[in-house]
TrEMBL record, chain B:
GO cellular component: plasma membrane
Main location: membrane
Transmembrane intervals: 12-32, 103-124, 136-157, 202-221, 256-282, 302-324
Limits of the ABC transmembrane type-1 domain: 97-325
Source superkingdom: Bacteria
Molecular functions per Gene Ontology: dipeptide transmembrane transporter activity
Identification of the protein by name: Peptide ABC transporter permease
Record's subcellular location: Cell membrane
């Protein structure tokens, strides 16, 4: 058993759009180890969500096309699995999902209890053991559900189960989503900007709960966010994506101490601070229908040379476990 | 509790709604240049006789006095006598109500049983030949003139093939009157012969009425399904590996039916009032036939009685729809 839980190699996904074929993922590499929290950081439209959905196998079949690549999850080749085995074996069991918007992710016309019961009916870890009768399992699951709701710090777990989604607050709904993601005891949780839709004060609490529970259970998390501050709080490693490619990957301490890609550097500089106020990044995200040749960041990069304009930079290591996709990475931390 | 408040609220509105309805129909039917007194008196009556009859019927009073008297008598459960049949209007209506109700209920049930599954399948196989085919059929079904379609059915199935009776509710006498619904009465009496016969008589009128009703249900169910299928909760349920069948037939369908239920309420009302033509073609002894005769003979009391009955039913159906709505969609708060 290796320490790598999931490896994405050379993943290319394109979407049909009115303007033409958009290459939303253009050869992405990503590795998540067991029990680690990986932050996937980037601006809107950089391909974070597409990557997350590709791993879950829930890209829209009519619009998205997987052109190339491999997604390996333990012994499974996710891209080779058919829909039925993905749904029954992986999704909800091995790989769980925490959505971006807890307001619309619950089905509005069923109680929370019904939705959790149905989840447990098909995804309970007790199903794998198969020793218990259906009735014993239901009773055991009921207790596990209540226990989990306490762990995510929901007040009145029994009461919440009887409520409809619109009757609980956004923060509580996201706590429920975390609980539902962890109940099947998955190996990987994909959290797609789980705090973006919440108030800032609630965000921190939710992150703390997610981090603690994932740590306690040794669950790996792929945590997408556009907020570096959030990533700093929760992640072990960070991967930065830009225009459909990962451009830098490093352990969190190294990442903030020695950002090597010019884009990463600008992202960090764009964080509001007392000295700088708010600084944006000049230029725009490239159109994915006809992206710039060479390095995709070169139109916004003052370090860009002729090489950057013509040749795609390869990924190379600048330190231990610190990879950068750049011809001229920044050398020091200054 | 919420349902109770809703019912009380609706009942409170019942009286003003009905009063408004009565006023409108009363004044419209009385400004029509027709003279029921002359109709009662016959062709060769002298002007004096006509005047005497007019006075006896109260038709020489100002309109508002007539209206006031009418309201008072309705409160006594008296809708006056039919000028045409000479019997109390209430009796006439009550004897014919079950025939129309039975036809309407069976039509609605058939339309739901056929329309909802077809709508679901059309949505799941969007833009397939089946979906396109259903679209053509449903639009045709909505556009078709029911009297023409009814006659066509009679020509083919009754005249040419001899499979179904031409008209009426049963051959000869109906079953002993218990509820007035022949199907139910025959079931209670265990009279399978009459049951079968009543069913046979029902086929053509039900088909005629059910075609546009089913078409409406198919279209609304399809639209509701498509809408719900694109929602975030379906994405979430899929990502968490809820079985597809459960997602479609439980989670999506319930949301999709919210719009369909409203339509079913409307269809019910339209059928109640609009069975007029179909009842006439199939010689169905219901309210429709009664209404036609009453209108043709300027039978004020009968027309008014018909209006009150249909209006009441419409209000009741709306109430039922609202209660159903509240059961399907817990967000509904009034």
């Amino acid at each position: 058993m290796t320490s790598d839980l999931i490896t994405v190699r050379g993943l290319k996904v394109s979407f049909a759009s009115d303007a033409g074929i958009a290459r939303v993922l253009d050869g992405v590499d990503l590795t998540i180890r067991r029990g680690e929290i990986m932050g996937l950081v980037g601006e809107s439209g950089c391909g974070k969500t597409t990557l997350a959905r590709a791993i879950l196998g829930i890209l829209p079949a009519n619009a998205a096309r997987i052109e190339a690549g491999q997604i390996r999850f333990e012994e499974h080749d996710i891209l080779d699995l058919d829909e039925a085995s993905l749904a029954t074996q992986l999704r909800g069991r091995q790989i769980a999902y925490i959505p971006q918007d807890p307001f619309t992710a619950f089905n509005p016309v069923f109680t929370i209890g019904t939705q959790i019961d149905d989840l447990m009916r098909f995804k309970s870890p007790l199903l794998r053991e198969g020793r218990l009768s259906a009735r014993e399992r239901r009773r055991a699951d009921r207790l596990r559900v209540l226990e989990m709701l306490r762990l995510v710090q929901l007040p009145d777990p029994e009461g919440v189960l009887r409520k409809y989604p619109h009757e609980v607050s956004g923060g509580q709904r996201q706590r429920l989503m975390i609980a539902m993601a962890l109940l099947p005891q998955p190996k990987l949780v994909i959290a797609d900007e789980p705090t973006t839709a919440l108030d800032v004060t609630v965000q921190a609490q939710i992150l703390t709960v997610l981090k603690r529970l994932a740590r306690d259970r040794g669950v790996a998390v792929l945590f997408t966010t556009h907020d570096l501050g959030t990533a700093y709080e929760i992640c072990d490693r960070i991967t930065v994506m830009y225009a459909g490619q990962e451009v830098e990957e490093a352990p969190v301490a190294d990442f903030f101490a020695r950002p090597s890609h010019p884009y990463t550097r600008k992202l960090l500089d764009s964080l509001p601070s007392s000295e700088n106020g708010i600084r944006g990044i000049t230029g725009e995200i490239p159109r994915l229908v006809d992206p710039p040749p060479g390095c995709r960041f070169h139109p916004r990069c003052e370090r860009a040379t002729e090489e950057c304009r013509t040749t795609r930079p390869p990924t190379h290591a600048v330190a231990v476990a610190h990879d950068v996709r750049c011809h001229h990475p920044l050398q020091d931390s200054a | 509790m919420k349902t109770f408040v809703l019912v009380v609220n609706r009942l409170a509105w019942f009286v003003p709604t009905l009063l408004g309805l009565l006023a409108i129909v009363f004044f419209i039917s009385h400004v029509i240049p027709a003279d029921p007194a002359a109709f009662v008196a016959g062709e060769n009556a002298t002007p004096e006789t006509v005047a005497a009859i007019r006075a006896r019927l109260g038709l020489d009073q100002p309109l508002y006095v007539q209206f006031w008297r009418y309201i008072l008598s309705i409160l006594d459960g008296d809708m006056g006598r039919s000028i045409y049949t000479g019997r109390p209007v209430v009796e006439d209506l009550l004897s014919r109500l079950p025939a129309t109700l039975e036809l309407t209920l069976v039509t609605v049930l058939v339309s739901i049983a056929v329309g909802v599954p077809l709508g679901v399948v059309a949505a799941l196989r969007r833009n397939s030949w089946l979906d396109h085919g259903l679209r053509v059929v449903t639009i045709a079904g909505l556009a078709i003139a029911s009297f023409w379609f009814a006659i066509l059915l009679q020509l083919l199935f009754s005249m040419r093939l001899g499979w179904t009776p031409l008209g009426g509710r049963v051959e000869g006498w109906g079953p002993e009157q218990i509820t007035g619904f022949y199907l139910i009465d025959a079931l209670i009496l265990q009279d399978h012969e009459i049951l079968l016969d009543a069913l046979q008589h029902m086929i053509l009128p039900v088909v005629t009425l059910a075609v546009p009703a089913t078409a409406t249900i198919v279209r609304f169910t399809r639209a509701g399904m498509l809408n719900a299928l694109q929602s975030n909760y379906v994405l979430y349920e899929t990502a968490m590996g809820y079985p597809r069948r459960l997602v479609i037939w439980k989670y999506v369908l319930r949301n999709a039916l919210i719009g369909t239920v409203t339509q079913i309420g409307l269809i019910f009302g339209i059928l109640l009032a609009g069975a007029v033509v179909v009842e006439a073609v199939f010689d169905w002894p219901g309210l429709g036939t009664f209404a036609v005769n009453s209108i043709l003979s300027s039978d004020y009391n009968a027309v008014m009685g018909f209006t009150v009955i249909v209006g009441t039913m419409f209000i009741v159906v709306n109430l039922v729809v609202d209660i159903l709505h509240g059961m399907i969609d817990p967000r509904e708060v009034r």
